[in-house]
Structure formats: structure tokens, C-alpha cells
Design a protein that fits this description.
- The chain is flat, with a radius of gyration of 19 Å.
- It starts with 5 loop residues before the first helix and ends in a 6-residue tail after the last helix.
- By secondary structure, it is mainly alpha-helical.
- Helix content is 71%, strand content 0%.
- The protein has a domain of 128 residues.
- α2 runs antiparallel to α5 and α4 runs antiparallel to α5.
- It has nine helices and no strands.
């Protein structure tokens, strides 16, 4: 697991003290945290990323910012939906109790974030076509577009400030952003180059 271990958890405790909870109490905290966020995702799991960071790093003290950015990178590099990060964050919350509690917490957190929103989308999809000619549906869909883009822009800024430390790291981020907008180069190439730069110590966090 990237960035999660006794030393990393000790570093987290140095600036943030998590609540003293039992194993079951910690699991209940994980489930409630993500269950309460499940219906607020607009445009995909990444739209809640800023709130994930606020809760897991600043409020509940499960992880450090460095651990959070590492887990985000791992979730984005792995195949699958963006909501995979929830399982990793939930695992980090209970990892100090042992691998089994970490895995149980990961599955519980993922289920909590996906189940309510999935049920809502299934119910909405069954009746959405009935409103295809309604002006309310058109207005609703057009209104959500700018909201979603604004949230995603805020998420991008959060990741930029969380993961980057130093002028060179910011420069690489802006160059990659410009190339993504202006070219058709695969993002995998950017990830590979950034990984090599990090591995060589050119970019440090």
C-alpha cells in the first residue's frame, strides 16, 4: 500500500489526532462518512474529491495530504471507476488496526458510497425518458453542466496544491495540462514521464 505504514501513520498523528474509537466504531465512522456523501456526486466520483480530502485529512485525520495524493494517483492509474479512491481512503482509516480491518473498511466504504447513488440512478433512469419532452428536464440538464465543470475545476486545483511542492512540480503540471488540451498524446505517456522524474528524484514532494 503506497504511503500507508507505521511511519506514515506516525507522521499523520504528528499534526492531526484522530478520534479514539474502537475497531467497530472506526468502521461505523467510515460507513457513515461515505454514506452521507453518496448522493452528492455530480458528474462522477472525482467531483467529491475536495470533500474527501477535507474529511480524511483535515477533519477525521485518517491520512496526511501526501498519503491522500498517493492514493489518488493509485486510484487513477488503476483500471476502473474514479470512485475506487473511496476504498483506498477507507482502508487507510482502519489500516492501523490490521490488514483484515483495513480490507473490511475498504469494502464497507466502497459499498456505502456506491449503493445509495446507484439505487437513485436506477430509479431515475426508469422514469427519465417519460420527461424527455419536458422543459424542466432540459433546464435541469443544462443547469448541471456549468455546476459540474466548476466542481471539477475546484477538484483540479485541490490536487494541484496537494500533490505539488516546488516550482518544478508546478511547471510540469502546467505543461502537461497545456499538452492535454492542445494535443492528442495519450495521458499514459505523461504519467510515465512524471513517474520517471519522480523516481530519479527530479521532482520531490
Amino acid at each position: 500500500m503506497i504511503g500507508i505504514g507505521p511511519d506514515s501513520l506516525a507522521a499523520a498523528a504528528a499534526h492531526c489526532t484522530p478520534a479514539s474509537l474502537s475497531d467497530l466504531g472506526r468502521l461505523a465512522q467510515v460507513i457513515w462518512t461515505f454514506l452521507s456523501l453518496s448522493l452528492f456526486s455530480l458528474g462522477g466520483g472525482n467531483t467529491l474529491l475536495a470533500e474527501y480530502h477535507h474529511l480524511t485529512v483535515d477533519q477525521l485525520c485518517w491520512l496526511t495530504s501526501a498519503q491522500f495524493s498517493d492514493l489518488y494517483a493509485l486510484a487513477e492509474a488503476a483500471p476502473g471507476p474514479s470512485s475506487m479512491i473511496v476504498g483506498l481512503l477507507a482502508m487507510g482509516a482502519a489500516w492501523k488496526e490490521g490488514p483484515l480491518w483495513g480490507l473490511l473498511s475498504a469494502f464497507s466504504g466502497e459499498l456505502a458510497i456506491l449503493l445509495p447513488s446507484t439505487l437513485l440512478m436506477v430509479a431515475a433512469s426508469l422514469s427519465w425518458n417519460r420527461l424527455r419532452d419536458s422543459p424542466w428536464r432540459v433546464a435541469f440538464e443544462r443547469g448541471l453542466g456549468p455546476i459540474t465543470l466548476g466542481i471539477l475545476f475546484a477538484v483540479g486545483l485541490k490536487i494541484l496544491t496537494t500533490a505539488n511542492h516546488g516550482p518544478l512540480a508546478y511547471l510540469v503540471s502546467f505543461v502537461v495540462c497545456a499538452l492535454m488540451l492542445r494535443t492528442r498524446i495519450s495521458p499514459l505517456w505523461f504519467m510515465a514521464v512524471a513517474g520517471v522524474l519522480g523516481g530519479l528524484g527530479v521532482i520531490n514532494r
